[in-house]
Amino acid sequence: MNKKLQTVIKGSAVALAIMLTTGCAAELQSQVDALNARVDTLASDVARAQSAADAAGASSSEARQMSSGAQSTANQALNAANQAQACCDGTNEKMDRMFQKGMSK
């Protein structure tokens, strides 16, 4: 009977070991599945962040182009204003000379 009891105990131990291994594997698979879901979520978040960064880069480039155009327009306006001032100064000098000639006669 002692041998039968030992055989039953050994068989039970093997069965218990198999059940624990199967249970651990199921637990591990559950954790792997949860981790895969998190990785998928993170990949989606990264893709959205990259898309937002690309859009911001495009907006920045467009703003830079608009700024360059505005600077060019401002430079043209300054040049026109300087030319107008030079013309005005020349006209004032001519008028001053005309008045001085008229006064000296």
Structure description:
This protein is mainly α. The protein has one domain. It has one helix and no strands. The longest helix has about 100 residues, at about 1-105. The radius of gyration is 45 Å and the shape is rod-shaped.
Major beta sheet, specifics?
Answer: none
Uncertain segments: none
Taken in chain order, the helices and strands follow as H
Share in helix? over 70%
Mean pLDDT, to the nearest integer, reads 86
Per the principal axes of the C-alpha atoms, what is the gross shape? rod-shaped
Structural class: mainly alpha
Strand content: under 5%
- What is the CA-based Rg, rounded? 45 Å
Give the number of domains.
Answer: 1
List the total number of helices.
1
Distance between the termini: 153 Å
What is the number of E strands? 0
Outline the secondary-structure elements:
Blueprint lengths: L1 H103 L1
Task: Provide a compact summary of the structure.
The chain is mostly helical and 105 residues long. It is built from one helix and no strands.
Task: List its traits.
105 residues, mainly alpha, 98% helix
